[in-house]
Amino acid sequence: MSYESSDGARVVLVDDHYFFRLGVKEYLLQRQDLPPITLIGEAEDGRQGLELILQTQPDVAVIDLYMPVMNGIELLQILGEMPIVPQVIIHSGYLEEDILLNLINLGAQGYLLKGRNPEFLIQAILTVAQGRYYFDAVTPQQIPAHANTRQQLKHRLKELSPREYEVLKCLLNDLGRAEIAIQLGIQSSTVDTYRKRILQKLEIDSLRNLYHYFPILPDSMGL
Length: 223
Fold this sequence. Notes:
With about 220 residues, the protein is an alpha/beta fold. It has 2 domains: about 10-140, 3-Layer(aba) Sandwich (Rossmann fold), CATH 3.40.50.2300; about 160-215, Orthogonal Bundle (Arc Repressor Mutant, subunit A). It has 10 helices and 6 strands, in the order E-H-E-H-E-H-E-H-E-H-E-H-H-H-H-H. A 6-stranded parallel sheet has the order 2-1-3-4-5-6, sandwiched between helices. Helix 4 links the parallel strand 4 and strand 5 (about 110-115). It is elongated and about 60 Å long. About 30% of the residues are buried.
């Protein structure tokens, strides 16, 4: 199997199953293909995983969906509020079609079923490390389409100025023109100007379209 050019990835593994972590570790150690993948840490629950991610700042975090103490969804929610987070691959023993869009909206870059050939995990890691989405082959086609649209909006959000981003956060928090004007120290008419400019830059007709892909907007523009 060939891969696109990449510098590899520094990875942490968050999973409560010891033998799964052991199997991944041994496979990565035996793997001689390029680009390199380095396992820099592992954790057995979401809380330990959060501490590990904060300490090591990996490129990719492979996170189990169901874990004790803090599950994968709870960990994703916390990571989504931080300015700098790794690319996240969620893996599970079952196809969770009903929550896939929620996982994407919370920031997951990939989804993989357990029990697949280890090469699928390698492919997933290298794909998300390059800033692209990876979904298991059994995932419905509309999921990648949703993910790609979210990725495009994510790039456009980075084009907003700091003040535009502040106004956008206020708008998504359902603050009115007068409230935003008072909070930011600007005129109400200026709020309208910012709103029009934001919609133009994001290339959307309504902020509801943005909320569909970003139910929680990060505090930082690092996204």
